[in-house]
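Malonyl-[acyl-carrier protein] O-methyltransferase: structure, please.
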Amino acid sequence: MINKTLVKKRFSDKAATYNDHAIVQRKMANHLLDYCENQLEKQPLSILEIGSGTGTMTKKLANVYPDASIDAVDLAPGMVETAKRYVTNDNVSFHCADFEEFTFENTYDLVISNAAFQWFNYLPETLVKTCRHVNEGGLFLFSTFGSSTFCELNQAVKWAVERLSYNKRVKVSQDFYSLQDLFAMLEAGIDKEHFSFHGTEERHVELFPDVKAFLKSVKEIGASNSNSHHYSQSISLFKEMIETYNDNFLTEDQRIPATYHSLYLYVTREL
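Here you go.
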């Protein structure tokens, strides 16, 4: 389970540094916006953004669709305050809330979410709930991180645990769904007579000068592991992980790769 209190605090604390380090997240947001531009047959008049963060995508939505009324929801107060200072468009309303518990009556022509659903504890139920608030002919688009995210880090930890014969629970990143997992959730929960969906995936490899720089970049956007379970934080294991990471994944130009596995789901409510 995700500790929402911890997520809220970490993202609030890192609102000022988020944009400097959220390189992959920006690419994912642009992917969703490009899809909207290419697929929407008419301008949406109502938009819901889930996980609005610092407001980067919110601002673009407000500028591209000036006639739309936009509800932007985010869990972290620090993120919402940062977004409010950045997005001054009259057509945007911000809501600081946990979307999984958020009660809303409106329906929308476009529902969009970038890199937020990996922080949900009840994703199948939330996907179904969200679909119910999509207007006929409307779109529900979201991106999240997939199961190969941080594969180098997870493999390095596994090897370090084996080398040290470590017998305590170890977890340095949270679990992520696969594209097939998301398909199964939608298949099980939506009315296929009224909804259709498809998805795509891609991998981004970011390069860092060393492992600590990579881990710092994750920390600076507030995205550190926020699982509720207690996990060992052994210094000796951490050192072994770094050494193992360097030994097995260092590139020819002496940099550290970190894979981000991006998933995109596109849900259409039929007319």
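Notes: The domain at 4-269 is CATH 3.40.50.150 (Rossmann fold).
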